[in-house]
Specification:
By secondary structure, the chain is of the alpha+beta class. It is built from 13 helices and 13 strands.
Length: 418
Amino acid sequence: MIGQHTKTQNDVHPDAETDTGADTRADTRADVDVVDFPARLAGQPFPPRQYADLRERGCPVRSHLPNGQPVWLVSGYEDVRTVLTDERISANPANPGFPRVALTGGVPTQDQIPGWFVGLDPPEHDRYRKVLIPEFSVRRIRGWRPVIQQTVDECVTALLEHGGEADLVSAFSVAVPSRIIATILGVPLSDRDFYESRTQILVNLGNSTDEERTEAAQQLLRHIHRLITIKQKWPGDDLISRILATGVLAPRELSGVVMLLLIAGHETTANNISLGILTLLRHPEWIGGEGIVDELIRFHSVADLVAMRTVLEDVDVGGRVLHAGEGIVPLLGSANHDGAVFDDPDRFCPGRSARGHVGFGYGVHQCLGQNLVRVEMECVFDTLFARIPTLRLACPPEEVPYKYDGTVFGVRSLPVAW
């Protein structure tokens, strides 16, 4: 998890980062320009205007994270996919040069959270992936669809009990994916408030300190470890119990896996649901159409800055040689708005074929839960607009408060009425 850190007061423009101990030496390459780091800014549209300028350069561009650490920005669709698949480029934050916006809040090392497998490279990464892939296969998620639909139905019913108006984020968008991922994992629904509150500390980098994030992570891990201990004695029909039964992962490793799945399984999806509903309220002609989910994932690219990388050995990306120890920020949102791949990319158009987007990542680290995300969002949009056809935004669109300081993009609240 990593994001653009900003000190905010009602979503102000990004500020300078506090010192994180990162390498802030000035760039010594005389043959490259250094550009400002492109960020989502309050009152400005997405994608940032700089993305198009970066793509026109046709090669990686030098920039600095807010803490001063030099990085390469990779913006073109093909170059981003190269970065995400080349074995000479690493996702492991323990390697020199890995981009870090804070001491905490980014991808943790295995010393910090064992089992956080998205921060591992093959073959270590493969051990986790192979045991988890069957749990999120198309077939497995199809079997979960009745439970997903029931959960969505119950959450819509609860929303209607608000009496004609509500904040859709707190009353609906978070509840749906958090209940579903907890059910799949085997986490008691009564624990939802606990892990959601700790997650918010971890992902809202502008509103929490390194110390607070460290404590929140440790609280989550201790809670999950106790749950795993219970499952070892009294297994159930859930993901945690099935993974324990394979013997592939040690309980300590599984704790990190469960923490990652809990956070990723509800935080990212909740933001996609909220943004999706907001977008469809503004484009009602697409309600009930096909291709909505993938176009929303492409269009909003909420996880634009999560795929940080570092170079292990010299590698050519887009005609520029990047050296070992240099950090890379592949801009997923820029790739998803590359006009060479998507016609009129800044227009929301579910009629296009958007399945080639990199909103779920690409390569060995492609989102494990993408099948689950698609089914959840399909059920949400089909059910919500069918049961509440008069749903409308209860404030001017420009007053919707967006998240500019989190690990993923989204809205803080979404006032609606019906």
